[in-house]
Fold Myotubularin-related protein 12.
Amino acid sequence: EIHIKEPIEKEVNPHLLPGELLLCEASTVYKYMQEDGSNRGTYGKLVCTNFKISFLDDDSASDDNEPQFKNKIVGENDITLQCVDQIYGVYDEKKKLLTGQLRKYPEKLIIYCKDLRVFNFCLRYTKEEEVKRIVSGIVHHSQTPKLLKRLFLFSYASAAPNNTDGRNQTVMFETLEDWREELERTKGNVKYKAVTTNEGYRVSEKLPLYFVVPICISEESILKYEGRGIPIWCWSCHNGAALLKMSAFPKEQDDSTSQMQKAFLDGIYKTISKPPYELLRMDDLSSSLPSLQDIQTAYTRFKQLFLIDNSTDFWATDVKWFSLLESTNWLEIIRRVLKKAIEVAECLEIQHTNVLLIEESATDLCCVISSLVQVMMDSYSRTKSGFQSLIQKEWVIGGHGFLDRCNHLHKSEKEEAPVFLLLLNCVWQLVQQYPPAFEFTETYLTVLSDSLYVPIFSTFFFNSQHQRDTNKSGESLKTQSGPFRFLTVWDWSVQFDPKAQAFLNNPLYAEKPKPDKSQRKTARFKHQRQLSLPLTQAKPSTKRGFFREETDHLIKNILGKRIGKFINSSEEPPNSLREFYDSWHSKPVDYHGLLLPRIDGPEIKVWAQRYLRWIPEAQLHGGGTIATAAKILDLMEEVQRLQVKMDEEHSQAVSGDVHSVPMLRNSARLSSLFPFASLQRQSVKPALPTSTWKDLEDEDDLVKRDDEFVDLSGDVL
């Protein structure tokens, strides 16, 4: 039996953005609900534009039952072309990956998205000509290589009215003044200076227009090797120790070039390492952290656990959930990255030692570690505007290759790696461990990860500031000439109305007390002491990671010295790190001071909201974090009403700083999928299939238990 809605009779037209063009469409397409074997779904029209793939049914035409958390740009049944991960066709019940030219057209289309949605479309009832047009159109526009200027970003920028101010207190780091203010904020202006050497990109196209280097570094040194081998400032600690990053020289060089570069580096190190007053510790991230290829492989395996076609697949994998999760190695990579950030924080905080992060381009793992360290050590980076400014500074202006790493142009899969997603996963670990320390919520992080694939913002669609600047000039439809005016993702009003934006703000954020009130120490909540660092690692590294082999013995001795009030022995970094870690976790948490993530086995968790939000089987009805949030928001609303009444009674002016909170009545009717998915379908856990029992024959103790499951939702959510 097939449960269907009748095909729609009235014409439903897609909502097109400025610059968006309809390319192809097909009527009488049947969209399955998340397939559970019942074939339930609805008829509608499938369209492809130069911006998105969209399914339009009769619900699309009505504004009734609009979700509370509606995205104004990308609807529930919209997939931006950059968000399409893989497309499969079903031929005689067999799935086949669709790429390039098609000789035969499928009867069913399955679209896997980078935000983990899965769309199933049945084309059996669609006209053959329309099937050919829509399938070949979708495959061509979402899977084949394209030119940068063909991105919808440029079409939208030339056609959309510019009536938004995208700054929203976010420091964009596009001017020299922005860098000087950041130096002043962190008290780094004593030892470091903002330079204009790269104006006109005469040093390097990979470097930003303006950046910060140690005061003793000359302009000639910066120009000599196109910025390579130059320590670039990221952030200064309250005690004066600084976090720096540096592009390494290529490893394969002839002897004479290598000797010259080594002599140049030794000279640079001697100018910034002046023991015992100024210590420097180097960390070559290419040897101490997983490679980009390892990260990509792990994430590819990991995301397959959540791209669920149907209920049967879900329950088949649920019984092996923990072993499948461990085999991906994704959580282990998150743990290693967090541990590395703790190491760097210990050097800065306890040993008062400058840390120099080294990487081939200094635009991938350097961005991850430097951002994490700042989130852990600088409470400003845990505010919404501070975190956005941090992403601008380290990633957007810092030259992370979003275009290549996200493979937006489908040019080369070799360059693809989810480096920015890795950072967001690491920050999420901190957000869920210390919620009051962050002004933003996990919903904010989830929406930010989705925005990676929305090509109306320039933030995540260029490899460097130079590439953005050189592609900014172009013909505008409005003025006939002049540069494009790109939107920034930080203007959240483009995607969400104020009511929806409230979900991005943490109502329980512990705001920093005013300086005049900070003299009295308030009692802080003491969190439960956790276990110490894991004793075993996945792969013990043969390299120390802090020193490169090329560095001569003298430099090693100089750099090897440590200064620290609490460290007696400097011979074994892991022990001092463990002492630092245990010591911090034995004290009450200061939400505006240093934050160290808990990285013991079960503490590193799956980011449930991002990865499980489209899977009805994983939902908790009336439960999950949203149930708690709903109660908190209701209480806040009540407190605000009482405050207004009190102010009125005392004839005082009502404060204009009252944040509007969304109405979440009847929170029991919500599920843990909220606010992203409105699916409320009850999922019945099937009897364990015979084939699964056969797989588990060796595990007699599990077989003896009656129908006991490893419950995914209970563990992760």
